[in-house]
Specification:
mainly alpha
Length: 157
Amino acid sequence: MGCNSAFEMQLTRAADYAIRVMIHLAAFAPGTRASRAELAAASECPEQFLSKVLQSLTRAGLVISHRGNTGGFELSPAHRGATMLEIVEAVEGPIRLNVCLGADDDCARQPWCAAYQIWSDAQDALTGVLRKANIAELAEVESQNRANARLEPMPSR
């Protein structure tokens, strides 16, 4: 990357859609299922792409997938209080702001690198904020925000 290159650091769309889906599911009563089409509409995500997101969430145990006529997706009872960090890492893998912060990546520069501690502190701050954000609480906030904005309420099943 040259000096004039623009650098933008952000999570993928998959992580964003995963958060949207989880907030939507957290608004429902425990055990309530939503179809892939409903989740795609609620998260404003193309269904085909959402399938990959739902696979990641299911693999991580955050969402339960049911097949058949009464199929659909539901929030795992054990993960109704999942954090944004858990959801992002289910889709993205562990958050690493720089390669030197990886568990297996020993950087030879680390003992004397002036930037290492800054990278480490920034990663700790980011993961700390995401760890505090509880999906059930976010669903409640979104429901209140929708009511205040006079938007269609999220369905309560």
